[in-house]
Design brief:
With 163 residues, the protein is of the alpha+beta class. The protein contains 2 helices and 10 strands; from the N terminus they run βββββαβαββββ. It is globular.
């Protein structure tokens, strides 16, 4: 039997119990924040668009839209399924500088800002970051196998990596 697959769109988050695969396609400057509780076999993914609400036009928005609020949003939903914060591990994928050539020299790219904000949010919540595939100048897709906790990152030009 094949595990159900759930795709997470921009500014969305999804959580699931095993067996399930949760993924996001075409991450450019966006960051996928992936949380997993290996003991409970529960995981989640937030597809983050911006580092914080101050960057977006709308202040009242979906928690998954911003790195500063996505981790808390994931934690609430994961706890509802029975996950425990102390057992959580995290991975980050994305945060590319897709249009670096169009920015003035020395400008911090949106992808890099998203990655920094995601790391800070994980640290604030005491969640251990155990792997990341971030930066660069190319897009990626990612999927979490909730059963095994394995994260597969793929890119057209750079192949597949497992976290």
């Amino acid at each position: 039997m094949t595990a159900p697959r759930v795709l997470v769109g921009i500014s969305e988050l999804e959580v699931a119990r095993a067996p399930a695969v949760i993924g996001a396609l075409g991450l450019g400057s966006c960051v996928a924040i992936i949380l997993h509780d290996a003991e409970a076999k529960i995981g989640g993914l937030a597809h983050v668009l911006l580092p914080s609400p101050g960057v977006g036009r709308r202040k009242q928005d979906l928690p998954a839209r911003y790195a500063t609020t996505a981790v808390e949003g994931l934690l609430v939903r994961l706890r509802e399924l029975g996950a425990a914060t102390p057992r959580m591990t995290a991975r980050l994928v994305g945060g590319a500088s897709m249009f670096a050539g169009l920015q003035p020299p020395g400008t911090i790219q949106m992808g890099e800002r998203n990655v920094h904000a995601a790391r800070d949010s994980l640290h604030r919540h005491g969640i251990r970051l155990i792997g990341e595939v971030v930066g660069g100048d190319y897009g990626r897709s990612v999927e979490l196998d909730v059963e095994t906790g394995k994260v597969r990152v793929s890119s057209y030009m750079h192949g597949t990596t497992e976290l």
